[in-house]
## 1
Amino acid sequence: MTEDFRICTRCVMDTSDPDIIFDENGVCNHCKQAEDRLNSEPYCLPVKEKEKRLIKLVDEIKRSGKNKPYDCIIGLSGGVDSSYVAYKVKELGLRPLAVHLDNGWNSELSVQNIENICTKVNIDLYTWVLDWEEFKDLQLAFLKASTPDSEIPSDNAIFGAIWGTAIKYKVKYILAGYNWASESILPTAWSQGYFDSKYILSIQDAFGKRKLKTFPLINKFQIAFNRKIRKINLVSFLDYLPYNKEEAKKIIIDELNWRDYGKKHCESHYTRIYQEYILPTKFGFDKRKAHFSSLIVAGQMSRDQALSELAKPIYQSEEKIDEDLTYLTNKFGISRKEFEDIMSLPLKSYNDYPHQEDTLFFKIVQKLYGGLRRK
């Protein structure tokens, strides 16, 4: 740690986020932003009022899906949040179509969890399989771009697949698994450009070898069009529930035979290796800090618990690191030397490449439409 190192007195975010700001009490700007989010509806509503809103929402979804095979779309990664959404929507009598993005990095356990969930709750599954050679080239392009945004291709494709499926089946509701209880904090400097097609294409043009012909690319303008013109509703479904991540985990273990991955987002080999090795090693970003801090502000984890977890090494041994990097490089078809060269490239950021947020058109759309992430 440097002499300038500083950590929030409330959560565990620290100066590894270059944009962090502390007040006179040592509380960071992330805590304050998270509080604003937790004070927004429907998350902040009393339990009884939430129940009323949820009943109304379910009725609206059922009416919108009348005479259709499905009344809502849910994304299903096999993680806690999406698995709990699948459990709850069926419990509420909805008829979801689950959409899963297969980007080539699924763990065997995630495949088993997804199969168990769909069987247990009796829902149809639509798997959107990416062209591996095309997607691999895009992921490598992002690694070569040397920004901390290399999960953007997967995140964008997931939403592209979900929105595309909703349009295909004329479904008016997408019930998303993201939620303020466990995801209220994520520093912009650690990752950005999720729905920025200009940014993604600029990275691919600069460092990739293939054209993106089948990738389900989506941007904020398309999302705005889908929501405002096609009238497709994107709902942060878990915010309508008294959602507690640990309690949800116990329920899906008991009811769906769900098996734990041990850590957040470890259903994907790439996400796990990227978040546990590449981000902290190259950029100094430990996403556990954001995950734990979100839970702290939501009252679902103590600061002492978080500090205790952060004191543990991400990797238990050098052998495990070597095993994971061998898997990664073999999957990408590159040598360990090529990977080390990528890791040693100068650090870059979103602002070093062309992106939509620097265009006048985007600023106008953003002003007219407002936030594009949540309902």
## 2
Amino acid sequence: MKNWLKALILLTVTGLLVFALAYDINSDSKIEVTTVLPKYRTIEEKVVVSGVIQPLRLVKVNSNISGVVEQLFVKPGDVVKNGQFLAKVKFVSDPIERERLLRSLNTVTIKYENDQKQYERNKKLFENKVISKMEYEQFEAAYYISKAEVKSIRAELKLYEGEMDTGQISNIIASTAVGTVLELPVEAGGNVLGKNSFNEGTIIAKIADTGILRFVGSVSEDDVNELHIGMPVLLEIGTTSEHQVGAHLEYIAPLGQIADGVTRFEIHAMLPTANLNGHMIRAGSSATAQIVTAKKTKALSIEEKDLIFDGDSVFVELLVGDHVKKRAIKLGLSDGLIVEVTKGLSMKDRIKVKTENSQK
């Protein structure tokens, strides 16, 4: 009896399953599929580079003497001329430096006196046509060089003794270029070191011609082979794309620099002007450069998100009648969002759009 009951139950369940499958097969319900058609578009491949805007010419004005900045005559943003006063330095005597200068003065004075005697003697010989002009000029040059060295060291000694010789060394620091003051690294009251054989001197001011600016960035070794001098560059200045400037690539570094295991090459793009459409471009501004390396118009294309990758092959799903079929295609240019299809599609093919669920 129990075996008969089990058989009846099993038969009933089997019948229900067969009925359900048959109903599903014969049902008119269909899976809804969203499709799109390929489009003809213009596609550009670009190299995008982050960088900064810098002045083409930057001059650093260093202190001639050691001491304390007593007064600053300019501020950042001021436009200065060549020779314009930037700062006044109050001299602070250094006993060790003074002793060094005294020893140097003694040495060059002895040499000067000897060169003077040689000069005067050979001048008479030249006038009497005993020696050639070339020989005479050698003694003449040595004499004037020694004379200048003695004068220079004496001027430095006067400075260390508190006397100013405006013809030689001054405690007034003047600009050596025409441009805009970008930075004053030392404030009034700050200590500075003067130029000497072992020190280039403390920087008093950084001056640049802000009318001539350039973009400086770096690209990877994969991208650098796609670039060449003269290529158009579109620069987006600042954090938004509202301010765009056209430029041209004017420098590609011949030697790459390795950082974090990646080789990168510095590039420069010259800006046509620092002021465009009423926007002032300031040195130090961040910028993004877009360089078009390849372009194709009327390219049959689809969105990259609808692609299916399987090994080295690329596919799309097409809706053919009531069925979805997979088809292999060949790709061309891509801008990262849109990709050219060079083989496998026509304008009439209905491509299945990948949904968020299907992409997971």
